[in-house]
Amino acid sequence: MSYIDHAAGFAWRGEVTREDFEADIEPLIDQTIDCCAAVLRDAALSIEEVDQVVLVGGSSRIPLVHAKLKSFIKAEPHTEINPDQVVAIGAAIQGGVLAGNDVRALLLDVTPLSLGIETVGGTVSKLIHRNSSVPCRAIEGFTTFVDGQTAVKFNVVQGERELVADCRSLGEFILRDIPPMPAGLPKIAVEFILDADGILRVKAKEERSGTEATIEVRPKHGLTDEEVEDMLKCAWDNAESDMTARRLIDLNTELETVLRAVKKNIDVAGQELSTEQMNRLKDAVEEAEDVGEILSPEPLQGIIDELEQAAYPLAEALMHNLASNTVRNRTVEDVLGKEQ
Question: Fewer CB within 10 Å, N- or C-terminus of the chain?
Fold first, then answer.
């Protein structure tokens, strides 16, 4: 064989044996087989559940490619269609489907990257996961984080990472006019609808008041296939550190929520708890306030567990007071809503 590059002023001529050729291309074929395995994992399928594998492209004629694939799928690949024409035939079929012709084929597209929203602490809550069939719909419930909160800002993001800072922001919108309520009481339903044209519609609605807000974006707009691949590779390479970082953020958020609830009812604790119980609660609160920057989830989980256990008598007292106030000066019939 010969190779000439006139621009570089380079020319080469020599003989390449089949053994040399296969030795050079084998690492690339193995990478392709790894990609096939990754596709099966994403689809939650075993190789036994695949009916046929169609070969695409002239390189699929190489005997080593055929042999490697046969070994992987434990069956003969489908070779009846000209591999140089497969993509064009598929495009023609899809064109017929889009044109409304009676084509006996069901072609499904999938979303290449997960879609979600930013939550407290800068983490991502994914509503539509990567490789979901399009069109698709997902809905999830959220609430407020502080007392009296009347507005919530939603940041719609795309990507596989656990933190918003490492994902792609698609757009932001604000849900306003939420009635002031204690943190955790508002019920906010967030709905993602991704249609067949790749348009994402996001709606947030506070269920008690009915107030709502929406945004419409195109998740794939401005992204090349290479950029999508880079985002997936980056997510895979950083999976372990991302999960640790997310767990730390979630634990800090949980600790802040418990600590705020305890401080809010500290006067009740002083009236209802024994000296021993109160001292334990004070020590747990002090430890939680001095937590500093902990880089491992386990010690932080231990601090939360101690605070929750120390606050358990307070929770009992609060529930007892609530029940007492509910039934005070009322008959059984009144409580049950029945007429005397």
Answer: C
Neighbours of 264 (CB within 10 A): 12
What burial class does residue 236 get, using C-beta atoms within 10 Å of its C-beta: 0-12 exposed, 13-18 middle, 19+ buried? exposed
DSSP assignment, residue 142?
Answer: E
Measure CA of the first residue to CA of the last residue in the chain; give whole Å: 103
Q: What pairs with residue 125 in β-bridges?
A: 117
In which order are the strands placed within the sheet that holds 168-175? 123-128, 115-119, 152-158, 168-175
Q: Which two tokens stand for residue 239?
A: 């999976």
Domains, the chain, in order of start with CATH, read 2-98 (3.30.420), 115-224 (2.60.34.10), 239-327 (1.20.1270.10)
Q: What is the pLDDT of residue 308?
A: 94
pLDDT computed for residue 172 by the predictor: 95
Closest to 44 measured CA to CA, from 141, 129, 155, 123: 129
Integer Cα distance of 322 and 147 in angstroms: 19
Instruction: Confirm whether pTM is higher than 0.90.
Output: no
* CA–CA separation, 58 and 82 (whole Å): 9
List, run by run, the mean pLDDT of 10-residue segments along the chain (340 residues): 82 88 94 90 88 90 93 90 88 81 74 93 94 92 92 95 95 94 92 90 94 88 84 92 94 92 89 92 92 86 94 90 75 60
> For residue 311, which of 267, 275, 259 has the smallest C-alpha distance?
259
DSSP 15: -
Going by C-alpha positions, the residue among 190, 118, 178 that lies closest to residue 148 is 178
